[in-house]
Amino acid sequence: MPQQPIVYDAPTPEPRARTVEAIQAEILERLIYSVGKDPIVARPHDWLAATILAVRDRVMDRWMESSRETWRTSHKRVYYLSLEFLIGRLMRDAMSNVGLIEPVRDALKNLNVDLGDLINLEPDAALGNGGLGRLAACFLESMSSVKIPAYGYGIRYVHGLFRQEMSEGWQVELPEEWLAHGNPWEFERRESAYEIGFGGHVEPVTDPDGTVRQEWRPNDHLLAVAYDTPIVGWRGARVNTLRLWSAQPIDPILLDKFNSGDHIGALEESARAEAITRVLYPADSTAAGQELRLRQEFFFSSASLQDIVRRHLQQYGDLGSLPDKVAIHLNDTHPAISIAELMRILVDDNGLKWADAWKLSRGVFGYTNHTLLPEALESWPVALLERLLPRHMQIIYQINAEVLTDARVRAKFTDAQIANVSLIDESGGRRVRMGQLAFVGSHSINGVSALHTELMKQTVFSDLHKLYPDRINNKTNGITPRRWLMQCNPDLTKLISERIGPDFLDDIDLLKGLDAHADDPSFQSQFAAVKQGNKERLAKLIKDRMGIVVSPNALFDVQIKRIHEYKRQLLNIIQAVALYDEIRAHPERDWVPRVKIFAGKAAPGYWNAKLIIKLINDVAKVINNDPAVRGLLKVVFLPNYNVSLAEVIVPAADLSEQISTAGMEASGTGNMKFMANGAITIGTMDGANVEMHKEVGAENIVIFGLTTEEVNEKRAKSEVPRAAIDASPRLKEVLESIASGVFSPDDPHRYRDLIGGLYDHDWFMVARDFDAYVAAQAQVDAIWLDKRRWNAMAIRNTAHVGFFSSDRTIRQYAQEIWGVPVASS
């Protein structure tokens, strides 16, 4: 069937009335005719579905007009490839961005339904792990807000990241059933389905003109089917698309096997295909797990590139204009196989010469590096790639040959330097380095904070930076102020509007106007009252979920992030034990009441991270039940950390723990969310803390610990940390109590090896930063007791968060990497 031409100027429906009556009628219509429920018997989940559908209808017109406008104007599009999109709940986000929260609230109230209850009922989309996925979500919203035509491409995980529960203090991983009852935000696009191949072999084919080209003939095929979700920009400026791929079999059932009695075997193909989009980050500690991870990454990369090339050819007819009309951004190394796949599409499927294809390909790709940790820079066994993606392995070898020749001939690199830049790691088993592939195949490589970018040049990509010195640049991360201030903290947003006017809603830099009011006792009192209300809400949540009573008058000391040794939750809980000992030893002192709040998930195969969670829970059990503490210290670990839980915790935090080992956190975005909501940061000079220190001023942040240079120096000297422990009697006593089983009487040796690691090597500088951390916490106590000073610092943190808006970040990407125009603030 011939393809229908695209109509650029199709009639747009008249704008819908925004009255409460009109919205109420639409919700009722959706409830009856889409959900199929009589209002008399409708349950809360029915009202939720009806409300989402009514809001979605109002997004659709702008969504379609946004797409038409891009086709009409031929503006360059940005395609953001990410294995994670931690978008959270969407209904409140969409309502807020199109200005519908109050009319929807009133419409539902007329129907005896509470909007707040419905918002809390919507499941979180389980499409990410932490910072990487939440950053991608913020970026998509900001791209819509600054009117950049964009698609986000990812995977429609059925279960996503696991649901975390606790069993006797241990993390237990359970499937996250976010799609159990469907997703009213998404649209299946059956016409956007692409065949994805694996395995097979490569054959040379001679074309009629005598040209010999390579043809990949996979022996394993499946379909990638698109599901689209609208991403609404602030004030409906633009609606972009999050396109997620679902894996489906070519043949859902092998009837010959079924009819022969092999009823299970008949479904093998379906099971193998659907496994690809079943779970986010399957454990890769086994060969089967590694293969599934690689299949996931190629699956969504190939589907996305096929879709991008199809759309470009449909609009422009040839591929020569690809870099002028297409910017593809790789969010970390997970989509790095895209470099080889686009070359295959251009050379093998479209007949371009290698040199021309390589120029086009490098012109469209940009790559963001998110880590300096060697284990997080992906690499895959050559044997696995040769078996699973034989043509791509050929292409990688060809790319590598050109890079190494360039290094040898032009740059006069030594053998050691050539080994460093090679796409193939020859040490300890041959592996393909995906970071190197992403680097050489992109025209731009960016870090996510000023410190991280400089360390990239000095460490993981030092020789590649010497070979291509104009490619590395910095784009400090940001967060969307709509989600992380306006929506999660409406009372603070209202207070700020009353004090400096509402213009900051459209230009977050105007928050600096709060500086003039930071020392005003009246404003301080109002600001503190908002914080107190948020703390009371969190205290209720803690009691309801955990059965732990905490005082909202205590200092809420919060560390919420992925559990990892370099993020140093261990340092935090060790200091909690030290504080516990001090309170018991000196009950006569004027102690600042504290609630230490932790949340985060540990990777299923990361034993030490899971052990740290258990330690936190063991310590909490002892401290929270010791009458000698008199409620002056409480420790809480909130399970199943996700976006919605963060939206309650962040506005309630007094103190933001950003205490990673210096030089190891690429940026952080949790630090920015806390800052926006008036929390004071205690942290190391690491990641974006460095820029926060600059923006808010040294007097409004609490910095401690070793610098990156000092950490590297101690590691280089292979210093034995035992000396630091012996020099700190308080630390020594705490470590001995934990290691000897004081907090684990059921298993006295549980933490012996965990604590022993601090004596043996202390790679993450927990012991060596302990005394500095304790001193910094004492400084925090002193500031807390001076309420006027604390409140002024908190207000100035909110006032200076503008630089950390993802709108600013995206404008920099657009102007300096992607080459697309943006709307001014």
From TrEMBL:
It catalyses: [(1->4)-alpha-D-glucosyl](n) + phosphate = [(1->4)-alpha-D-glucosyl](n-1) + alpha-D-glucose 1-phosphate. CDD domains: GT35_Glycogen_Phosphorylase. The keyword NAD does not apply. It comes from the Bacteria. Its cofactor is pyridoxal 5'-phosphate. It holds the Pfam family Phosphorylase. It is an enzyme of class 2 (transferase). Its EC number is 2.4.1.1. Keywords: Carbohydrate metabolism, Glycosyltransferase, Pyridoxal phosphate, Transferase. Transmembrane segments: none annotated. The keyword Nucleotide-binding does not apply. Belongs to the glycogen phosphorylase family. Allosteric enzyme that catalyzes the rate-limiting step in glycogen catabolism, the phosphorolytic cleavage of glycogen to produce glucose-1-phosphate, and plays a central role in maintaining cellular and organismal glucose homeostasis. NCBIfam families: P_ylase (TIGR02093). This is Alpha-1,4 glucan phosphorylase. The lineage of its organism: Bacteria, Pseudomonadati, Pseudomonadota, Alphaproteobacteria, Hyphomicrobiales.
